[in-house]
What does this fold into?
Amino acid sequence: MTHSRTQGGYPPPRRRSTGRTVIATCAVLAVVAGAGYWGYTALAGGSGSEDPQVAEATKELESFFTAWEAGDAQRAGTSTDTPDNAESLIKSVMTNLEPSRTEIKAGTGDKKTEGEVEVPFTVKMALPGAGEYSWDSKAKVIEKAGKWKVEFHTEMIHPAMVPGQTLALDSRDRAAILDADGDDLQSASLVGMVDEKTGKGMSGLQARYDKQLSGGSAATKSVVIVDRQSGQVVKKLTGTEAGKGKPVRTTIDPKVQEAAATALEGVKKNAAIVAIDPTNGNILAAANMPSGMNRALEGRYPPGSTFKVVTAAALLKQGMSPSDPANCPKFATVDGQSFENQDQFVLPAGSTFRDSFAHSCNTFFVNSRAKLGESTLHDTAEAFGIGGTWDVGTVTYDGSVPVSTSDNDKAASTIGQARVQASPLVMASLAATVKAGAFKQPVLVPDAVKKRYEAPAKLDSNVWESLRAMMRATVTDGAGRALKGIPGEPHAKTGTAEFGTETPPRTHAWMIGYQQDQNLAWSVMLEDGGSGGSDAGPVAAKFLKNLTG
It folds into this structure.
C-alpha cells in the first residue's frame, strides 16, 4: 500500500474497516495534522526523519492487517514467518466469530533493535449476538535475509490466548420455558425458536420473553477462548457480568399436552387441540400439527356449528326451552339464499330444540333468526368473552361476532358462518364457560397477566343448565357419538364450517366439549378436515382416551 505525504510532511493514517472488505478512511483522517498514528514523528521516534527500516516493517504489517480484516487467512499468513500457523489460527478466529465488520488500528511503531520493529495495535469487531468487541495487542516485525516478516505467535492475535487455543462465540445461558410442573415445556409451537447466530428469540414465547429469558442484556452471546482440540471453553472474555435470565412459567399440564400431541399424530391435515381448566381459565394444552404456526391460539376460522352453543344460548335467553318443538326441514331459504343440513338430512316430526342442537340441524337455527335482533348474537357472545381483548401472556386471536347487517348475514351467523371468526382457544373457552357457568379468561403465563378480561354480559343459570343438557345429548343421541362410552361423561358440540368459494365448499372439522368428572374443556379443529362428527370426533375421542388410559 503506497502513501502520499501531506503538506506538513505527515503520511495519511492507515485504518482498515471491513465486513469482509476494506473501507478506506485515509482521506478523512489525513486532514487532521499530526493525527495519523503512522505519522512521521511517531515512526521516527521524534528524530525528524522516517527510519527506512520502520517504513519497510510497517509496510509488511500493513499487508498482514489488510488481509486479516478481509478474512483472507492465506494471504495474511504469507506476511508472517510461519504462514501455515498464521493461516490456521486466523481462519479459525474469523470462522468462529463471523464478524460483520473488522477494523484494525495500529499505534506508534518502535524500532527495538536493528532489524526489529514493534507496533501496538487494536482490533475491533462487530459480532453477531455479542455486539462490539475490541482488544489490544502488539506485533513484532523482523528482518531476515533482507525480507521483513511479521513474527507470528498466538498471543499476538489475542494476548489472553496461548498456543492451542482460539476465539469463539458462546451462547449465554438462557433461562428455560417451563410447564406447570416446572419442567421444560414440550411444545415447539408454544416455545418458539431462537436464532442460532444472534441468540435472540425469533418466535413464540422465546421471542415474547426474550429479555426475561436472556437476563435483559442486548448481547446474547459471549466472546470466549476455547481449546482448539476439545472445543471446551477456557475463559470467558465478555458477558461475565450479564444478568441471569429468569424462567417463563406456563400453565401447560405436561400430561394433557402429551395426550393432545399424541392424538394429532397421523393426522394428515393442519390441526390443533386446546384444553382449558374451566375453574380458572388455565390453558392446559395447546398442540398443533404440524408444529410451527400456533394455530391453536392464533388461528382465525369460521367455527361452524360449534357456534350454535352461542345461538342456542340466545334462543334460550329469549324464552325457548330445550323441549320446545323444532322443525328440521331439508332446506331453508333466505332472500334467495339456500341453506341445507349436512347431507341434506331431516329430523322427523315432533323433534325438539334439543334434538336440532344435538344433530346440528342448520335449517332450524336459520329459521329461528326472527327471534333474534341484529345485535343479539354479538351481545350473547360477549357472555362467553368472545370479541374481547384477552391478556393471556402470549399472542392470541380472541374471536369476532359482528352485529348483523342483513337478514342473510344473520342467518349465516346463527350457524357460525358469515363473518363469525374464532380460534381453537376461543372455542375451548366457550366449552369451559358452559361448564363453569361464567367466563374465565384463558391464561398461559400467569406472571405476565396484568388484568384478565371480564365478560361484559352474563347469562342466567337456567341457560347454562339447558346448554349442558343439550351438549350431553349431542354425545348420547346426536352428532357427537364418537365420544359415546368414553369415561368422564363428555359433553360436546360438533361443527362443520364451510370456507372458500369452491362448489361444493370445502370444510373445517370441529368438535368442542368438556368432561363432567374433571376440570377439562377442549376443542379440536382440522383445517379442510371434513366433518365435525366423522373427522374431528375420532381425534377428540383419541385425546380423551389418552387421558383416561
